[in-house]
Hints:
Blueprint: H1 3-15, E1 19-24, E2 29-32, H2 34-40, H3 44-47, H4 52-55, H5 62-74, E3 78-80, E4 105-113, E5 119-127, H6 129-216, H7 220-229, H8 232-264, E6 272-274, H9 276-291, E7 295-300, E8 307-309, H10 311-328, E9 333-342, E10 345-352, H11 382-392, E11 396-402, E12 406-414
Parallel strand pairs: 7-9
Antiparallel strand pairs: 1-2, 1-5, 3-4, 4-5, 6-8, 9-10, 10-12, 11-12
Helix pairs in contact: 6-8, 6-9, 8-9, 9-10, 10-11
Amino acid sequence: MDGRQRYLASALVEHIGIGVIILDSKLRIQYWNAFISQCSGKQLEQGINQALTSVFPEANTPHLDQMVTQARDHGQHAYTQWRDNPYLIKLPYKPAREPGVLMLQSTLLFPFRDMDEQLCFGLLLYDTTEFARTNKQLDAALEALSGKQIEQERLIKKLEKANAQLLQSEKLAAIGQLAAGVAHEINNPIGYVFSNLKTLAGYVQDLLRISDAVDGATSLDELRQLKRSLEYDYIRSDIEALITESEDGIDRVKKIITALKDFSHIEEDEFQFADLHRGLDTTLNVVNNELKYKADIVKEYGELPQVECIPSQINQVLMNLLVNAAHAIEQFGRITLRSQQEGDWIWLEVEDTGKGIEPHLLNRIYEPFFTTKPVGKGTGLGLSLSYNILQKHNGRIEVSSEPGQGTRFRIWLPIRQPEAGSSGNPSL
Ligand SMILES: Nc1ncnc2c1ncn2[C@@H]1O[C@H](COP(=O)(O)OP(=O)(O)OP(=O)(O)O)[C@@H](O)[C@H]1O
Ligand SMILES: [Mg+2]
């Protein structure tokens, strides 16, 4: 180094905003720069050749011992951070610092040799007060954020609970809808069976009159006369017709009730192996009232094994799909039901010739409350409920739709439920 370089180097050390102290091998002060003088209020002459810990007694800490051991015995750079040790020496006099605020420091101690090959130490003190302050603000912000996160988690839990309640009420709404349909279906046969019974009661009266007359009649002619006047032949033929018709009516009611029982499976809410075609047929029976004026039903069933599922829930999904299909058809159309097994999976399909779904709405239809139906008509919960049910079954639901042409929903179910813990979605 020439004289100019040496001058520049020492000028730099005097001007730099970092504390620089040089110690000899016994940790006696050999030099400190202007930064230390300014901040400590002590002049270098006062400290020269004095032990660091006698000029700055607060530095006498296990931290310093550790650093010295690392630098002296291992020849390494030893670094301490303000977080572990807020300061090494007290420097309250830094210009422009607020009174009473101590400078927080990170420090570096490193060994080097002087021109006589004697061991020395360089001790650098970095002012980290500002840094610590912004760090603290960051910590506070982080804490606030984590508070917000906890709040969010709480809200999510609340939403989940509300969702569960909604699903429950959707179930109730579905039952209400179903009950209305069933009432309509039963009303008709019950109506004519009731009126037939009334007619039959009249006929029985007449027949009793004839048989009562047997005891008091004086001649066979008199009896024949009574029979004729009561239109016996007509009664006879009509009784048969009335009884056949009433039997049909009662049969119809019986069928509806069996379908209802099958459909609801109220007593079983557990996974079991079930015949999905049967489920689909009973569901069709239940929603027949909504479908019959809207569409021809075409069944293209494949071969299906028994599938492990909660039948009442799968029936509910099918009911939602069927009712949606009927609603999508404006005049009169066709609803095609298909099924198929593919490996360990089966699928069921409900295809309609209705108005279809606009492409930009396709990814919204499973959202709770998403509906394009007029207020009071749709709750927008049918598909979201179906989606949840399929998730619970480790299955899924797919849709493809062509506006103006129709829509096809396909539900996929694993034939067997995967063991708890392993996931089983098909990779398609
Ligand atoms: N087969 C379909 N054809 C055309 N659009 C459909 C069909 N199925 C569903 N959609 C659309 O998806 C929306 C959401 O359906 P979802 O079953 O969830 O609710 P919704 O039928 O409107 O009301 P809810 O079923 O609760 O009475 C419907 O409003 C409709 O716009
Ligand atoms: Mg619906």
